[in-house]
Design goal:
Elements (H helix, E strand, L loop, with lengths): L1 E4 L1 H5 L8 H14 L3 E7 L11 H6 L9 E6 L2 H7 L5 E9 L2 H8 L3 H17 L3 E7 L12 H13 L4 E6 L6 H14 L4 E6 L6 H11 L3 E4 L20 H8 L6 H15 L5
Parallel strand pairs: 1-2, 1-8, 2-3, 3-4, 4-5, 5-6, 6-7, 7-8
Helix pairs in contact: 2-11, 7-8, 8-9, 9-10
């Protein structure tokens, strides 16, 4: 299972701006750990996500000379995708496509129909640049708005993405409502229906709930799983109270540490105190 570390998600909702030089220090330590992928930043409107306004400057400061880790940047529209794809260091661009119409509007100011048109163009752009598009199916385990939801609806969205040529799809529990049973059921359904897709899991969770959710992903055969050190993060566009990411330090014992530099992981955990402050949840 590929382990994806998400400092971008961890930082994006912080009330204080993390200085660029501190971001660079933190990300460079994470690069030494040896995760498969680092979700390091986003090319989005600084008005919407001010914390990520310095993503290009952060990228310029990263030491990629010895790491095996691939970089992923989140984009919210075609302009952001075009900017991200100009950087040779970035292998993946990630786009949040919601199965909830309300959240699609909140998150990207687009309808689902408009967002799918954007995905088609992003896939074309990524292919041309020899990069890979990762589509996150936001609200992939339900939503708080009363919008329609079912695993079958997630399957319909997946089929649309497959038809567009998207090869990596990550159902996302944007507000932490999933259960281990729902996680395993959804991924077993999707993996049986779409064996050629590389499925990832981007789950948000409350303290103490991570282990059973990770185990559910493993049992179902998920290929990629996202986490963030100490469980920081959450989507500021989804709700006022952020629900954090799966804590990476709780994922590793369950999926294995082969190839990871555990000393660098310990260093990153220590440095995270300067980035995020003390754990408050």
């Amino acid at each position: 299972m590929h382990l994806v570390e998400c400092p971008r998600d961890a930082m994006q909702g912080l009330p204080h701006f993390v200085p660029t030089d501190l971001k660079i220090r933190y990300l460079n330590v994470l690069l030494r750990v040896g995760f498969h992928t680092l979700d390091f930043g986003s090319f989005v409107s600084p008005r919407a996500i001010p914390q990520m306004a310095d993503t290009a400057d952060v990228l310029a400061g990263l030491d990629l000379t010895t790491t095996r880790t691939h970089l992923l940047a989140i984009v919210a529209n075609l302009r952001g995708a075009a900017e991200a794809l100009t950087h040779d260091q970035i292998r993946y661009i990630g786009f949040p496509l919601s199965v909830s119409e309300t959240f699609q509007q909140r998150n990207t100011n687009r309808s689902i129909e408009q967002a799918l048109t954007d995905v088609a163009e992003m896939q074309r752009m990524a292919d041309q640049a020899q990069k890979q598009l990762v589509v996150y199916l936001s609200m992939g385990f339900g939503n708080p708005y009363g919008d329609p939801y079912s695993p079958e609806r997630v399957g319909l969205f997946t089929q649309k993405l497959v038809d567009l040529g998207v090869g990596i799809i990550a159902p996302s529990d944007t507000v932490g409502t999933s259960t281990p049973a729902a996680i395993e059921s959804l991924f077993r359904h999707l993996l049986a229906q779409f064996p050629g897709v590389e499925f990832g899991a981007h789950l948000h969770t409350r303290p103490g709930e991570a282990g059973p959710k990770v185990d559910a992903c493993r049992r179902a055969g998920v290929a990629r799983i996202d986490g963030a050190l100490r469980g920081f993060g959450g989507c500021p566009m989804a709700a006022d109270d952020l629900t954090g990411n799966l804590p990476t330090e709780e994922i590793i014992p369950l999926v294995g540490s082969d190839g990871l530099d555990m000393a660098a992981l310990d260093e990153a955990l220590r440095l995270s105190n300067a980035v995020f402050g003390p754990v408050t949840h």
